[in-house]
Amino acid sequence: MTVKTLFDKIWDAHVVKKVEGGPNVLYIDRHLIHEVTSPVAFLGLKNRGLKVLRPEKTTATPDHNVPTINQHLSVKDELSRHQLEMLKTNCTENGIVHHDLGTEGHGVVHIIGPEMGLTQPGMTIVCGDSHTSTHGAFGAIAFGIGTSEVEMVFASQCIMQPKPKKMKITVNGTLAKGVTAKDIALYIISKISTSGGTGHFIEYTGSAITGLSMEGRMTLCNLSIECGARGGMIAPDEITFEYVKGREFAPKGADWDKAVAKWKELKTDDDAVFDTELIYDAADIEPMITFGTNPGMGIGISKNIPTTEGMEGSDKSSFEKSLQYMGFGAGDKIEGKPVDYVFLGSCTNGRIEDFREFTEFVKGKKKAPNITAWLVPGSKQVENQIRAEGLISILEDAGFQLRQPGCSACLAMNDDKIPAGKYSVSTSNRNFEGRQGPGARTLLASPITAAAAAISGVISDPRK
After folding, report:
1. For 116, phi and psi rounded to 5 degrees?
2. Cα 438 from Cα 114, distance rounded (Å)
3. What is the DSSP letter of 57?
4. Per-residue pLDDT tens over the stretch 364-394
5. Cα torsion through 102, 396, 183, 353, rounded to 10
6. Which of helix, strand or coil describes residue 91?
7. Among residues 134, 179, 290, 371, which one has the fewest Cβ atoms lying within 10 Å of its Cβ?
8. Are 243 and 306 members of one domain?
9. Comparing C-alpha atoms, which of 194, 386, 393, 395 is closest to residue 295?
């Protein structure tokens, strides 16, 4: 019997055809779409006189361009409004389920998939969005695709892809108090850089990983793309099954038992070989925060910003340029730096567990007067849970207000933009120049570290 990794087992089971000396034709189980990368794909389909081949395998929701206040009103921005209208029209014409603004199923595409049980172990999942890697937390192969590939999946329910190399990242031990899945991810990226995973699909293993909740695993897999990897995945276990069980599109009755029996086989064989293997100790990870303009420029919150010692050429100049943009000096202490905005949300940290952690931290405290805080649930379901669990009153007592679901300040494609020169401690996934608005300065962190900044008004170690 051939020894295989988890990735091999799922990939090989979905190969429809191998192109000699070229890519594989891969069958896709679930296609998720939103308003930004689908209109041109739908147009291409229409121009070729085609319909979506398997509309029941596709699910749509608007998220990138949507406002996060007054969603009952017409969207003010003309381009955004047009994209939302086109998504609705295209879905109606092709028989695709569309979770519109204000409906119970609405939310960020990578949050509603798992919530509804659309995301399941052993699947291949694609979306015209790089953070599709989130769904790998379930033991699925999930990756982002471009607009032309979206059209390909519409037309054939397949995609042409070269098979990536395989990387295994093991994190052993127990996470310290105040350290979360977000910190694991930022720690790994700081170690291997934003290109360390290029060409690979990562499988995360080790006691620190299996100890994470499903929501924590989704956060970790979400950020796989930020080290250059094609995606990330974690073998399904009892925590996975418990999360999926009973959800709307999860198998029921005898089908559930059959599915779980099959899912239990989804694990890497003992002697399987990876192209790259890395091992880390959970004890070495503290709350992380970024100081520069890519997710690899991260440090433990008690540390100082690195100096340029040992750097040469383009590495040194790009490092200096990044610090200049951020208004920081090499060797500066990161703690105590001023903050203007705090953003809790996005497909990285917009789930109910993230809001519970943030709320627990701010309970009985008050938001610092200099802080503008945007708390944006990742879905209508998360918003409803925040209210049902009484988190809303704790947040409001502490001086916070809840917004409505959407991608919000993650990417400045909507009204939620951080003003130029302002500092934002953000639970999102990218801190590139202008990512949260032209001239915005972004520091990526966990919900707990974001909460500490919101209360103190400066970058603060949540453990203190």
Report:
1. -85, -10
2. 32
3. G
4. 999 999 999 999 999 999 999 999 999 999 9
5. -50
6. helix
7. 371
8. no
9. 194
Range of 435's domain? 288-456
Could you tell me the two tokens for 83?
Answer: 């994209």
Check whether residue 411 and residue 318 sit in a common domain.
yes
Cβ neighbours of 415 (radius 10 Å)? 18
Integer angstrom CA distances of residue 216 from 240, 347, 360, 371, 449? 12, 12, 17, 26, 15
Same domain, 20 and 104: yes
Q: In what order do the strands lie in the sheet with 158-161?
A: 15-18, 24-27, 158-161
Question: Residue 425: phi, psi to the nearest 5?
Answer: -85, 115
Tokens of 37: 């990368």
Inside any domain, residue 462: no
Sheet holding 441-444, edge to edge: 372-375, 341-344, 423-426, 441-444
CB atoms within 10 A of CB 18: 11
User: pLDDT per residue over 386-415, tens digit each?
Assistant: 999 999 999 999 999 999 999 999 998 999
Task: Among 255, 276, 297, identify where a domain stops.
Answer: 276
Enter the tokens of residue 315: 């590495």
Categorise residue 275: left if φ over 0, alpha if ψ from -120 to 50, beta otherwise. alpha
Which range (191-200, 308-317, 425-434) has the least confidence? 308-317
